[in-house]
């Protein structure tokens, strides 16, 4: 019986060690959508620093794990949460513009 309990405890520990953080999940999803790793790391950091921990965690679950579209996810949030996202938007946009190979097109 003791061996069985130790085996389950070891498996649980190994599983926990291999889980990706919310930050990693969001960054990888962003890269998979075609952005550069540096841009994605910047965007994810801005979200993590400026969104409440609960909203950041739910965002990682919805966008990263469930693969929901960002626009649809934000539309599904309460008004207060949408405003929280809006307050981070300019910082997220500046992440793309701060990349050395980014182009600014003026008509």
UniProtKB/TrEMBL annotation:
It comes from Hyphomonas beringensis. The lineage of its organism: Bacteria, Pseudomonadati, Pseudomonadota, Alphaproteobacteria, Hyphomonadales. It comes from the Bacteria. This is Lipoprotein.
């Amino acid at each position: 019986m003791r061996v069985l309990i130790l085996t389950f405890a070891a498996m649980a520990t190994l599983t926990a060690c291999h889980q990706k953080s919310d930050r990693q999940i969001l960054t990888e999803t962003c890269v998979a959508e075609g952005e550069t790793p540096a841009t994605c790391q910047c965007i994810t950091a801005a979200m993590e620093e400026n969104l409440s921990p609960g909203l950041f965690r739910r965002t990682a679950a919805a966008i990263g794990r469930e693969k929901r579209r960002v626009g649809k996810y934000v539309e599904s949030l309460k008004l207060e949460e949408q405003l929280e996202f809006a307050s981070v938007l300019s910082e997220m946009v500046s992440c793309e513009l701060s990349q050395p190979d980014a182009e600014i097109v003026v008509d």
